[in-house]
Design brief:
heterodimer, A: 359 residues, alpha+beta, Alpha-Beta Plaits, MutS, DNA mismatch repair protein, domain I, DNA polymerase, domain 1, 4 domains, 13 helices, 12 strands, globular, B: 364 residues, 8-stranded antiparallel β-sheet, 6 helices
Chain lengths: 359, 364
């Protein structure tokens, strides 16, 4: 059976929700995040703000400089989460085979929703009206726009949703995919981060087309990643749409108003974040085998360190203790910190089968 | 510096000290063994800055002196040398010429001055313990040392010198092993140093059957003198948790077991304990223990042991590895297993002052 995958991606999600809820912001550069005269970063920027090269994760101060007339809005995470739930509800009505990637994007597997038949492109084309209907329903009921990519796998669907934004609908046919990929940057491939991209570019691989023509050279450049890279270059991707609702990680972080290495301040922040993370774990009825700390220094250098435990960690006290351990072991607080964070991952049922001595 | 030495003695001397040398070190000098030739003696010393070992062998010293040479490389060379007598000469640039039979080796050393000295103990408290007794006590406790680096105070053995007793304790939070030794010392020498794992391992290797070991405890260091060999280690800083509180009081049931029979049965059954649950179940019925394990989709195992048991019927589960570790370490033919109920710690005891507290696993 040919596969039909959608990637549904909300357009400038947080900013669009703000523009919808505040009609006076419409058509104006809206920047969701910390105010430009304070610490912190941009969470999302409206398309109007993006024209000024404002990007998410950029320090608010920089955004303020690039876009002096930008409207800075404090994020309302609860509102976005509620909106996300409403949109996922619309998607779930189309198919139960859905993988929520984040608050504003999801993969849908429509393979079973189109008439059976042998031709992959016929199946993809048959699914386009379904994609159009999803976009219409989101626009009608939620007054927001989404971009959807339609392809035979997750990789192609994601490229499709990204191809024409906002309010796009892009179908990548199987017979066109190799040509479609040719001009794209190697950075368009999931897993190719800045480091791998630099490695590839240093060897003259700038576009996916380069990967296609010189696929045999890849193992010597990227080692074991070569097989995946070769597959992606020709538009192959057999990752399934993962419908499990599993949380993969939980984290909390804190950007300080002023850079600080004051131990009581850091301890208090750590304690609070440990409590937040422990509460989230409890809420999901999970324990964690991996605990991580993250520090960001004045110059934005960011380090993370983690430790893997044998038994699931569940309590704030334990998370705090391990975070402290990591900071001390790797001497991470060598100067004032801009940001401090705690994360937990490798989430498992919070059961300790092995009982412990009260020691 | 120039000396001759028997190949056999030199190799033995190197083997005594070379364990401490770390293979991955940022300080090249720490890969080297310090060689000090004095009148009729060659002293060999190694350190990784946490633990240091120093030993002495007889040598015919023609020209006294000192140098350092790569420890493992030197040991590898000496092991392969063709004759019984080795002659080593070191020039002013710390280049060693090794001659043995028709073989000649030249290896480059580093100056002795770069070698970090082992700490001196002044005003330290000293104790004298019989070697075999200490070795035996280490064997009975060291398997319970925690390897969890996040609880570093547990990454060693507590040596609690109190009331003319040395109590040695190791725990990883799931089990605890404890031994008492009679040792005489004045009240003023009481103290509770924590000896790190690496030192415990070395000590276990160095201790023999005969003679005493002299233990010196400083504020942040400990040393063990065994004949001419000296082992020095940093202590773990911090307070050992209150271990007394986890030792259960009165047991409800005491079962006497043949150690080896029980060990072998647990071992056999554990072959079918799943990696995930990693437990064996002990089911107590009248005059019988059934040891059982199963792995979903793989299979199961059980074995019955006749025992003198008249108590109530109940089951308790343990990690098989934790159950076997003390059984392997103890020399006794007979052990006692004290139990309260399925959620309370089990205790293994013997006729002498030893105990092993083991927390059970939840039966799923």
């Amino acid at each position: 059976m040919p596969r039909v995958i959608f990637h549904v991606d909300m357009d400038a999600f947080f900013a669009s929700v703000e523009q919808r809820d505040h009609p006076e912001f419409r058509g104006l550069p809206v920047i969701v995040g910390s105010p430009p005269d304070q610490r912190g970063v941009v969470c999302a920027a409206s398309y109007e703000a993006r024209k000024f090269k404002v990007r998410s994760a950029m320090p608010s101060r920089t955004a303020g400089r690039l876009c002096p007339h930008g409207i800075f809005v404090r994020p309302r995470m609860d509102a976005y989460r509620a909106e996300s739930a409403a949109i996922m509800e619309i998607l779930r009505a189309v198919t139960p085979v859905i993988e929520k990637v984040s608050v504003d994007e999801a993969y849908l597997d429509l393979s079973a929703s189109v008439p059976p038949g042998g031709d992959p492109d016929a199946a993809l084309e048959a699914a386009v009206p379904i994609a159009r209907a999803i976009k219409e329903r989101i626009a009608r009921e939620r007054h927001l726009t989404a971009s959807i990519g339609v392809g035979a796998n997750k990789f192609l669907a994601k490229l499709g949703s990204d191809f024409r934004k906002p309010d796009g609908l892009t179908l990548i046919r199987e017979r066109d995919k190799v040509e479609f990929l040719k001009p794209l940057s190697v950075r368009a491939i999931h897993g190719v981060g800045p480091v791998t991209a630099q490695m590839l570019e240093a060897k003259g691989f700038a576009t996916i087309g380069d990967l296609q023509t010189r696929a045999a050279e890849l193992p010597s450049v990227v080692g074991s990643f070569a097989a995946d890279l070769q597959a992606r270059a020709f538009g192959h991707d057999d990752r399934p749409v993962d419908t499990s609702e599993e949380r993969k990680s939980i984290s909390a972080e804190n950007t300080f108003l002023h850079d600080t290495d004051d131990r009581p301040t850091l301890r208090a922040a750590l304690k609070e974040m440990a409590a937040d993370v422990a509460q989230s774990l409890a809420g999901h009825e999970l324990g964690a085998l991996t605990v991580q700390v993250k520090v960001r220094y004045r110059d934005f250098t960011t380090l993370t360190r983690q430790v893997r435990m044998e038994d699931p960690v569940t309590t704030a006290r334990e998370i705090y203790r391990l975070a402290q351990f990591l900071l001390a072991r790797d001497r991470l607080v060598t100067g004032p910190l801009r940001l401090l964070g705690i994360g937990v991952s490798t989430l498992v049922p919070p059961i300790r089968r092995q009982l412990r001595l009260p020691i | 510096m120039k000396f001759s030495v028997s190949k056999e003695k030199l190799l033995a001397g190197l083997q005594t000290v070379q364990n401490v040398v770390s293979t991955r070190t940022t300080l090249p000098i720490l890969s080297n063994v310090l060689l000090q030739a004095t009148d009729g003696q060659l002293r060999l010393t190694t350190t990784d800055l946490d633990v240091g070992v120093s030993g002495v062998i007889d040598a015919q010293v023609e020209k006294p002196g000192a140098t350092t040479l790569p420890a493992r490389r030197l040991a590898n060379i000496v092991r392969e040398l063709p004759a019984a007598e080795v002659q080593i000469e070191i020039d002013s640039k710390n280049v060693a010429s090794i001659r043995c039979g028709q073989s000649f080796f030249k290896i480059l050393g580093l100056p002795e001055e770069e070698f970090p000295p082992l700490p001196k103990f002044e005003g330290a408290k000293t104790f004298t313990i019989h070697q075999q007794a200490l070795r035996d006590a280490l064997k009975k406790t060291s398997y319970a040392i925690s390897t969890d680096e996040t609880r570093y105070v547990l990454n060693g053995i507590l040596f609690s010198f109190k009331e003319n007793k040395l109590t040695m304790v190791a725990t990883d939070g799931r089990r605890l092993a404890l031994v008492d030794l009679e040792v005489e010392f004045p009240r003023s020498s009481e103290g509770e140093p924590i000896v790190p794992t690496k030192c415990v391992t070395e000590l276990g290797r160095l201790l023999g059957d005969e003679g005493d070991v002299r233990v010196s405890v400083g504020d942040s260091q400990i040393s063990f003198e065994i004949g001419g060999t000296l082992l020095v280690s940093k202590l773990i800083e911090g307070n050992y948790p209150n271990y007394r509180q986890v030792i259960p009081g009165e047991a409800k049931e005491r079962i006497t077991l043949e150690r080896e029979t029980f060990l072998n049965a647990v071992h056999r059954v554990s072959l079918l304990s799943s990696e995930k649950s990693n437990s064996v179940k002990l089911v107590f019925t009248k005059n019988n223990i059934e040891i059982a394990a199963n792995t979903p989709d793989i299979g199961e195992a059980h074995e019955s042991l006749p025992v003198a048991y008249k108590g109530r019927e109940f089951s308790i589960a343990f990690n098989p590895e934790f159950l076997q570790a003390p059984l392997r370490a103890l020399p006794n033919d007979e052990i006692f297993l004290d139990l309260i109920d399925e959620m309370s710690p089990g205790v293994i005891k013997i006729q002498s002052p030893y105990l092993y507290v083991l927390m059970p696993m939840r039966i799923s």
